[in-house]
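Appendix B, Record 12. Input sequence as logged:
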Amino acid sequence: MALTTEEALYFLGIDYADEMITANVNDAISMADAVLKGAIGDDVFQYFPDDPRLKHLQKLYTADAYNERYLQLSSNTKSANAQRYQIQTLELQLKLELRRKKEELL
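Logged structural output:
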């Protein structure tokens, strides 16, 4: 389940996207997918094609990559920490379930 540019723009709250914004968002989506595969497993999209947690993680990672593209530090540390906790929790859930799904197929 690939995150579309339109879904990412909506999640980021971008109403109008010119060519540069669209390119930056698409780069962020690509990075987010690579991070998810590295954090959870290369075949995570195969085993969880319609899982809303995976889609939400894609959005969170995309937002993080897009918002931090200039290495700006967040002024809202409490919010950033809450987002990091949410990401870690969703990653762990999907990692454990991916392992279980693979074991069921053996």
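The CA atoms of residues 6 and 40 lie 25 Å apart.
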